[in-house]
């Protein structure tokens, strides 16, 4: 693949309206410094104790699902005030928490292919929890996202496409319009669940940790009942 464009703009300069437009139209948004360094350090002290499982394609990509009931600061992050304030402005109503997981991309991780999280008829990966018509995932990064350490990758506006190539069950190794999104530790990337995204390989010297929390507006229920 060709070298991707890097979106390293000053995200702190965006107004609330510009942030909403960025997420709605482009499919992704960075809110920098949502977590201060002490908060990040406390969360990393907890994630260091997690028992994780490797994914089927790489021993260097590990994770732990369903961490919402761990308690303490892990659970409290679901209600992080700055995040909820933005989501209320975005959704315009009640917010429903959907799911929560931890992921770690270690040196040697080959990258995650471009994919969409919104799969309208359920799937073996996401089940009915991924079938909401509107869902936003908040990806809190606990380490600096630099070009060498699994930065976020996304195809802007791909969630708007009506072509068969945007079938949300499709996967791509690369795309000519994909971009790389670096960010500092403590920042969060917000994504529309239908945007095609992934991450780049980790060819650096440290692991990249992430806490991913999904929310939906109250009106946007899934296609079938899910476990409470």
Give a topology summary.
Elements: E1 5-6, H1 16-26, E2 28-31, H2 37-47, E3 53-55, E4 58-65, H3 72-76, H4 81-91, E5 95-105, E6 112-115, E7 136-141, E8 152-154, E9 179-181, E10 188-192, E11 197-199, E12 208-217
Parallel strand pairs: 1-9
Antiparallel strand pairs: 2-10, 3-4, 4-5, 5-12, 6-11, 7-10, 7-12, 8-9, 8-11
Which runs of at least 5 residues are low in confidence (pLDDT < 50)?
Answer: none
Shape: globular
What would you call the structural class?
alpha+beta
How many strands, which pairing sense, and closed or not: the largest β-sheet?
A: 7 strands, antiparallel
Overall pLDDT confidence: 95
Terminal-residue CA separation: 42 Å
Gyration radius, to the nearest Å? 16 Å
- What's the helix-strand series? EHEHEEHHEEEEEEEE
The count of helical stretches stands at 4
The amount of helix comes to 10-25%
Strand order of the largest sheet: 2-10-7-12-5-4-3
Structural notes for this entry:
The chain has 228 residues and is of the alpha+beta class. It is built from 4 helices and 12 strands, in the order βαβαββααββββββββ. The strands form 2 sheets. A 7-stranded antiparallel sheet has the order 2-10-7-12-5-4-3. The protein has a 5-stranded mixed sheet with strand order 1-9-8-11-6, with no helix packed on it. Strand 3 (53-55) and strand 4 (58-65) form a beta hairpin. The radius of gyration is 16 Å and the shape is globular. The model has no long low-confidence stretch (mean pLDDT 95).
């Amino acid at each position: 693949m060709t070298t991707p464009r890097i979106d390293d703009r000053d995200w702190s300069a965006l107004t609330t309206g510009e942030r909403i437009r960025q997420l709605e139209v482009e499919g992704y948004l960075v809110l920098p410094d949502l977590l201060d360094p002490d908060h990040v350090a406390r969360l990393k002290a907890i994630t260091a104790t997690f028992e994780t499982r490797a994914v089927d394609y790489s021993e260097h990509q590990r994770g732990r699902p369903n961490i919402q009931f761990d308690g303490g600061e892990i659970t409290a992050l679901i209600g992080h005030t700055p995040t909820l304030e933005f989501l209320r402005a975005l959704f315009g109503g009640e917010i429903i928490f959907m799911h929560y997981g931890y992921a770690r991309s270690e040196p040697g991780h080959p990258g995650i292919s471009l994919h969409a999280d919104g799969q309208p008829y359920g799937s073996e990966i996401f089940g009915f929890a991924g079938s909401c018509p509107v869902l936003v995932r908040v990806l809190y990064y606990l380490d600096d996202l630099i070009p060498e350490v699994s930065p976020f990758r996304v195809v802007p506006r791909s969630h708007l496409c009506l072509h068969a190539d945007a079938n949300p069950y499709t996967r791509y190794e690369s795309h000519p319009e994909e971009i790389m999104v670096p960010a500092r530790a403590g920042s969060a990337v917000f994504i529309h669940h239908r945007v095609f995204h992934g991450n780049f390989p980790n060819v650096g010297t440290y692991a990249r940790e992430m806490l991913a929390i999904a929310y939906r507006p109250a009106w946007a229920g899934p296609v079938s009942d899910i476990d409470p």
